[in-house]
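Exam revision sheet. Question 4 asks you to relate a sequence to its structure. Input first:
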Amino acid sequence: MKIFYSSLQKKHVIKKEVYNGKAHPYNDKVSRIDSILKAFKQVGHYEIIVPEILPYDALTTVHDEDYLHFLESSQNLKNDEIICPYVFPCDSRIPRHEPFIPKRAGYYCFDAGTSLMNNTWNAAVASASAAYSAALHTKKTGEATYALCRPPGHHASKNMFGGYCYLNNAAIIAKYLSKSGSVMIVDFDYHHGNGTQSIFYDSSEVFYFSIHAHPLVGYPYFTGFETEIGIDDGVSYNLNVPLMPLSSPNEYFKALLNGINKAFKAMEPDYLILSAGFDIEAGDPIGHFNISIADFQKLGREFRKLNKKTIILQEGGYLVSELGVNVESFLNGFEY
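Answer key, structure tokens:
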């Protein structure tokens, strides 16, 4: 399986010592990438390809241009300057004022735990480029691919960042692939992909299925309920399967397979995009399911059985010491 990754994705770095002198509760650490790359190196048979930067219009098919310009403007921040939005306009009628002022970052953000730095834009574009190159390869060859996306993407909406996500990698490639076939996104991150859902919520061009922690107890709290089935043309093209924390692996797999069966009855996809979150592992610091390394291999096999052109995108997974082996176990299960 070909792996797509750019070292530019490491440029987005939180240094806790410069954030008001306090430790910042930021889990999307660069060491996540190192853990995955180390596991690939130990196995030795994965080909890692540096992606070319994706065309700008691939971003504008998903994200509003004023939002993209806002993210780009974060390059003007000083070195080691970290912006965490903490004031949010709740009235949608409030206009967005230019130029970019750091304290107005809340215009484009939905939480106070996702930071901007002067290399955030470059890292996010590189992450989206990894996903895009993986999609190009799968479309051309039919082979499954994996994009080591970091920052992740499934929380980013058309005009908002949050949940460590800035550009919605899955949505970007879904828009691209939908020109040549039907597309389904299956999101198994511990957290609901509120951004991906919102992008396609009124559309039938992409089916979105997510299995995640119940929003009564899990971030992002406001979305991910079973009653959210889409609106307008998107009715019945959105499926949420929320589970309570500490669900057993058997409960998880039963719910997942039931959800896949429902989704495939609604749409038989030509392309399958996996928003692959490994924060479902037992012991993850911000996820509370009980999936083991052996379960990840089983999970990979289940997706392989679907026999679809598949692009796997890295989303969450924050137990750094185990992340790499879990990702490799999943890919191994998918391949063999």
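Marking note for examiners. The two ends are 11 Å apart (CA to CA).
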